[in-house]
Amino acid sequence: MSQKPREGKRSQVEYLDARSGEGTAGALEELHKQLLLLPPYRWLCSAIAGSGISPRGLLISTPYIWLLLFFLAPFLIVLKISFSEYAISQPPYTALFELVDDIYVQIKLNLENYQLLFEDDLYWRAYLNSVKIAGISTILTLMVGYPLAYGMTRAPQRWRLALLMLVILPFWTSFLIRVYAWIGILKKEGLLNLLLINLGIIDQPLTIMNTDTAVYIGIIYSYLPFMVLPLYASLEKMDDTLLEAAADLGSRPIKTFWQITFRLSLPGVIAGCFLVFIPALGEFVIPDLLGGSGTLMIGKTLWAEFFSNRDWPLSSAVAVVLLLILVIPIVAFQKLQEKDKAA
Amino acid sequence: MAGSGHEVRKKWDPWNDPQEKPHVQLLSVSKRFGDFTAVDNIALDIYKGEFFSLLGPSGCGKTTLLRMLAGFEQPSQGQILLEGSDMAGVPPYRRPVNMMFQSYALFPHMSVESNIAFGLKQDKAPKGEIAQRVEEVLDLVQLSSFAKRKPHQLSGGQRQRVALARALVKKPKMLLLDEPLGALDKKLREQTQFELMNIQEQLGITFVIVTHDQEEAMTVSTRIAVMDHGRIVQVATPTEIYEYPNSRYVAGFIGDVNIIEGRVSEVGESHLNIVSEQSGCGIRARHAVDAPVGATVWIALRPEKLVISVDAPADTTTNCMAGEVWDIGYLGNLSIYHIKLDSGIMVTTAQTNRTRDVERPITWEDRVYLTWTPDAGIVLGQ
Amino acid sequence: MNKGLSWFTWSALIFGFSFLYLPIILLVLFSFNESKLVTVWGGFSTKWYAELFNNQGLLNAAWVTLKVAFVSSSVATLLGTISGVMLTRFSSFRGRTLFTGMIYAPLVMPEVITGLSLLLMFVAVSLDRGFLTVTIAHITFSMCYVAVVVQSRMATFDHSIEEAAMDLGCTPGKTFFAVTLPIILPAVVSGWLLSFTLSLDDLVIASFTTGPGATTLPMKIYSQVRLGVTPEINAVSTILVGLVATGVLIATIISRRNDAARLRDERLAAVDP
Question: Quick check: is C175 in a domain?
Fold first, then answer.
């Protein structure tokens, strides 16, 4: 019975060992030592040791340990490095903890990175601009997505599943490719300009590529399914007799739409907006490929800081602040979801 | 033993026999979930071959009690003994007890046959024996021709029977049934109640059933435990529960009842005299509770035990309430009358419609008299 | 009233779905263009596909990507399934809140941060970057998606089915394999597929965590895309889109057939006495 998972676990460890030999084992041991500084990891280790390690308990704790090692620990390292100084060395930052006389641990907290983020307008403008771009594109996505979701719920019953499928399908195909597809359309000698000029609507090609407009289009396009699905879900479960009741009571269709349909679909609207806004805020690929040099977005800034300037402490600080900004919408979203469930 | 045929069953009352050892014993069992006490200090004996009902409204702790018998919950306090041995710490998969779930909990990915064979396979029974016993039990529940079907290919009633067969095939010492008929429609439910009773009598297994349906409990049980807020209020046979409830709660929960408040005025050898302003008359009832003169008591009167008449009886001072017909419900076999007494309280009576045409039918606003015999009223204390 | 809506419905659907599909259709179309210019139609040709199969760098990257996707989605499915079961069936263990948080956080974490943090950790423990590190990174975020998919399946199926198995003499461990796993298997499979496509698709995290010799296909495509649109990239994209679309379509058709069969069975069963 519990034979199977145990084998799974063993082969995974063997796999790790086989891949990189002694280096990995040493690295893992080093990691283990560092992680013992963390209370949750320590609890876990003592819990495993104390309980006499049942194979089932070990199996169950694997995902927990995995996430501690590869999610929580890396994040704490980011936090740590964000407080250290840039140095021309390998790795390019100074140590935060130093042993003094082998007894005291000296902590050198360096707040300069954070100070820079607030002083240099490149950074705070990038944050503000990300919020602006994510916000505007969320509203635009809602404006494109709402009619689509509404149309889907008005379509004949037998089509609906197929239509839903068609909305989900692009989500499974490569994000990068979907963004790439727009380059050919939006660029100066691209298909859109070609079409508009041939139709005689414009004389001079429009400059859309490498502007904020292109970024908006990219975000709307990429995140449209995230908006349509919750909207569709909330519109679908709406009772049609409500509309009939409103009409019966003398309400005109447009008014009925605002007072009944839209109001009742608000949970879907809110869910959709958060699902677009949150990932759009830290987006990298879209502003990088479609935006211009003037398109400031924080994901792009972080990437440049890391890969071009190789300033690891500063990019860590950028990441920490970005997360702090993200916490606000995420917590708000969770609160709303809980309220929804309670109602 | 339940035995076969009705003559044996009539005399069969092991709970009155001090020599008989209980099959299952609950010794002051309590179960708490955090601050909430689901089961509160219950003591109960169930005898071999009984069809025992746990009856009560939802949230009264009856399902928790059943789950403790099955081993899904451990008592916070107290002991559960099965044939004298303590069940504490014995996991569900090692208990000689099987359960039929309210949702039936059939394995959706297995055929009827494999569902039923599942329990036997866990015991590593030989293949031939498994096949034989599955066939037997399928025959018992009349599903032999459905052996190869999957649960979703069955109707509700058939699924219910598969669940029963699956729980019976291991020949458990005790079968626990959690609202076994709750999902069936009324007609099928009534029919299945009798099937369940037949199967129980044939196999002689102890059945413990949880239900909120008092009619169901009355029909199938040897004894009923009425529960409220985690406690057992009364344990008795269906007849006793109906005719001699021990509290206003039980009287009200099983069947319809009129409850009238009064004060004891005289304590006789076998009877009590009660003054009651609500009824507007003196009440004479059989002695049932220990109540001194002056104590407040309640008299429970079943609607069918009251006789309605437009003519005043000879004695209007004892066991005779006068009032006005407020409402009439004609149910075909019965007529229900709501009478507003002179004191203002409402009383219900039910009369069998024995003849087609009544010479002078009782109608709205008629002044009527309700009478009953001293044996009909039940005196209840606090 | 219905007629008035119908006009609006039609235009909303047509506009919405053209917006979703036109770019992909154009991309596919121009992968068959004879001309190197993406905007000028020079006649039908499959020469870009032929060229693709001579591009060793691209083929190597594709092979690396497939390997990473296969290994990472398999491990992620294992870990994610355990996590999903833990979240629904183990109501209290030490650090449950932390664990739940760690399952959900990667879903909303910007990729740049996930990538950066993993890279910094690999550097901190001086683990050489390459195939192993990308795979670890992909497992970490994929397992959270699997966990959520499995968890939602676990939450909707009747817990008493597991209790019934235990009641019939099955130990908890055996119950998992005999009853729970077969029931949640569709969710586990879709979790695997989801992890596989996520891994196939990932550019940002791979760029941070990979090293020399383990360049993935999205990285390769990205570096070429930055230089401009080429029919060759269109061809790669077409193949990728085609593969995924076929897979998803087949999966949908199979599951809808099963649903239809099931519905038919249930209708038949309702007629039976």
Answer: yes
User: Edge to edge, what strands does the sheet with B174-178 contain?
Assistant: B97-100, B174-178, B206-211, B51-55, B223-228, B231-236
Q: Is the pLDDT assigned to residue C37 strictly greater than 70?
A: yes
For C149-180, the pLDDT digits (tens) are 999 999 888 889 999 999 999 988 889 889 99
Write the CATH number for B66: 3.40.50.300
Amino acid identity for residue C269 in this structure? A
Check whether A3 has a pLDDT greater than 50: no
Determine the distance in angstroms separating the CA of C178 from the nearest CA of chain B, rounded to an integer: 10
All residues of chain B having their beta carbon less than 8 Å from the beta carbon of residue C266 are 152-153
* Total domains, chain A: 2
DSSP conformation letters of B343-375: TS-EEEEEEE--SS--SS---TT-EEEEE--TT
Chain A contact set for C91 (CB, 8 A): none
Residue C112 corresponds to which tokens in the numbers above? 């740049």
Question: Taking a C-beta distance cutoff of 8 angstroms, is the pair C204, C113 a contact?
Answer: no
Q: Determine the distance in angstroms separating the CA of C82 from the nearest CA of chain A, rounded to an integer.
A: 7
Considering the domain boundaries, does residue C19 fall inside one? no
Classify residue A334: in a domain, yes or no: yes
pLDDT band at residue B115 using 50, 70 and 90 as cut-offs: very high
Total domains, chain C? 1
At residue A15 the predicted structure's pLDDT band, cuts being 50, 70 and 90, is: very low
pLDDT single digits (tens) A261-297: 899 999 999 999 999 999 999 999 999 999 988 888 9
- Which residue does chain C place closest to B71, by CA atoms? C167
| Closest CA of chain C from B137, distance in Å | 15
Regarding whether B180 and B272 lie in a shared domain, the answer is: no
Q: Which domain holds residue B181?
A: 6-96+172-250
CB pair distance less than 8 Å for B152 and C266: yes
The answer on pLDDT for A229 being more than 90 is yes
* Residue that is last in its domain, among A62, A82, A102: A82
